[in-house]
Specification:
Length: 252
């Protein structure tokens, strides 16, 4: 059921569905919780699903000041502490994966398992980055207009803030990744806007990590192969790791 909670001064919209262990999903940049419709939101059949929309996204208003990954991670830390009240399974897509990664790095006590879908640990991993005044796909503009508390043209303001963050913000280093102790699944498309080299560095950098590359997909892999993505993520979240027969990286 949709509700609103104030985190760091921002009235943050969220939806809650299902029962079970808590699973929080972070949507992509300039989108909203509907990006999980028909793919990961079906996991509400097995988990207590939380779908927050970050500042300047979806139903949640933009406020004075920047929209940085640092700020969004701080917002989502307070969201989990306030609304859920304990550690969660955490999955993020695109910009949401960046936010999820920062949250797990800063507050490992709040994360049971971590799923990073088409995300980056440093802005250098993106093959395409937002530019102020750049063209926004009509499907994104239309979706924003349907739910945002601002006029449709305000999406350009959000874009400019995200672009400024991408140009100036420091995220994580490979040394930082080595400190993440939570079991992690890295998911990517085989034709993503995150370079495969960067995805491999992310996977190799987190000690207890697993990797899934979804074939025949782009950055829109959740929409292109929703059932396959849900199967991969659901299995990881439900099941414990199994010993492999011929371990190389995990040989210890």
């Amino acid at each position: 059921m949709p509700d609103t909670v104030t985190v760091n001064g921002v009235p943050t919209w969220y939806d809650v569905r299902g029962d079970g262990e808590p699973l929080v999903l972070f949507h992509g940049g300039m989108t909203d919780a509907r990006c999980f419709a028909g793919n990961l939101d079906i996991l509400a059949e097995q988990f207590r699903l939380y779908l927050p929309e970050r500042r300047g996204h979806g139903h949640t208003p933009d406020v004075e000041g920047p929209i940085s990954h640092d700020l969004m991670a701080a917002d989502m830390i307070e969201f989990i502490e306030t609304v859920v009240g304990g550690p969660v399974h955490l999955a993020g897509y695109s910009d949401g994966a960046v936010v999820a990664l920062l949250l797990a790095y800063r507050r490992p006590d709040l994360v049971r398992k971590l799923v990073l879908i088409s995300g980056a640990y440093d802005h250098s991993g993106w093959l395409m980055t937002p530019e102020p005044g750049g063209e926004i796909p009509e499907v994104i503009t239309r979706a924003y207009a349907e739910v945002a508390p601002h006029p449709p043209e305000h999406l350009q303001v959000v874009l400019a803030k995200l672009a400024a963050s991408a140009a100036a913000e420091r995220l994580l280093t490979t040394e930082d990744l080595a400190k993440i102790g939570v079991r992690t699944l890295v998911v990517a498309a085989d034709d993503d806007i995150i370079s495969l080299e960067h995805t491999l560095a992310l996977y190799r950098g987190i000690p207890d990590s697993e990797l899934a590359v979804v074939p025949g997909t782009s950055h829109a892999l959740l929409e292109e192969k929703p059932l396959r993505c849900r199967e991969i993520v659901g299995e990881f979240l439900r099941d414990e790791a199994v010993p492999t027969w011929i371990p190389i990286r995990r040989a210890g």
